[in-house]
């Protein structure tokens, strides 16, 4: 695994901070917030792009591509894969992304209106396209096999992992990098989210602004970051003596078919994706030991997700622990599900559930076990990770502890 996050640019630093309940959310630095009521973003704090990317290449990439390439480099470093001995045609990448190069679009629009169209950067188009994160990872690491980009808003990171696993399942590849990335904080993006009242407007310290499932939650905190899992067929992983961290055992995707930005009010779409992921894993809801929630800190999303969990798990919903990684890192949109997948796998490996911080006031509509404010030790073998995006696009994945038969 590799990750660049608001809590650092290594999986270990990220995970240790999550377990401690440390927030990576701070004052706005990437855009001028003075005209907006929402002023607290979570930005990845890292020098990794400069470390892993040739400076000339980096200048030709938007930030979202840089984060993806950095996460891929860290994942390869962690995996022990020797690229020179692999069949490059059997290696691929599937990346989830929401916005592409939003800040680069804004910068070049300013250039267009001030100086004219012929002064726009010659790299503008290849920088902003959402597929360029996967393309740059493929190009720089020589991955010539199955490659794709998933653009399903906040579900994209989870769907990137699920689609990578599907490519291996059907025999299209032996190794696929699956994950998601986002780096879209800019004036234009903040304006768009503010006018639909999606962002937190609370006059509280930045680290307190993301409050999933709390009665006083009032919107999400925008974030940037990327994470990549190196997925392999079992045969390939065993053949090279890999340390297998976990198994992707189930995957489900659904659509609310309801509204452009609001979730289906009865949670039916989210429930379908959860149910199908669990069924795909050959499990029952009672087999799930922990749920990593989408948990955005928006009033409607958290209520609807709670309702969907109750629909799938019945009375068992009150027994399964749930937590929201976004309480500490904010919402990285297309990168969120991948960042949360890293947390899920560390939960399985280390036997500890990170908390949902800033949970202070109970909401009668959100009455499940959200592991409030303090990490909890537990034996966790199976995890369900939820991601729900604008447009009613839902993706869930089940991770399981690996046991060699």
From TrEMBL:
Annotated GO CC locations: cytosol
UniProt GO MF annotations: 3-oxoacyl-[acyl-carrier-protein] synthase activity
InterPro entries, sorted: 3-oxoacyl-ACP_synth-2, Beta-ketoacyl_synthase, Ketoacyl_synth_AS, Ketoacyl_synth_C, Ketoacyl_synth_N, PKS_Beta-ketoAc_synthase_dom, Thiolase-like
Keyword Transferase attached: yes
GO biological process, alphabetically ordered: fatty acid biosynthetic process
Domain Ketosynthase family 3 (KS3): 1-401
Cross-referenced SMART domains: PKS_KS (SM00825)
Pfam families given in the database record: ketoacyl-synt, Ketoacyl-synt_C
PROSITE patterns noted in UniProt: KS3_1, KS3_2
Active site: 154 (for beta-ketoacyl synthase activity)
Keyword annotations from UniProtKB, A to Z: Acyltransferase, Fatty acid biosynthesis, Fatty acid metabolism, Lipid biosynthesis, Lipid metabolism, Transferase
Family: Belongs to the thiolase-like superfamily. Beta-ketoacyl-ACP synthases family.
Protein known as: 3-oxoacyl-[acyl-carrier-protein] synthase
Source organism per UniProt: Geodia barretti (Barrett's horny sponge)
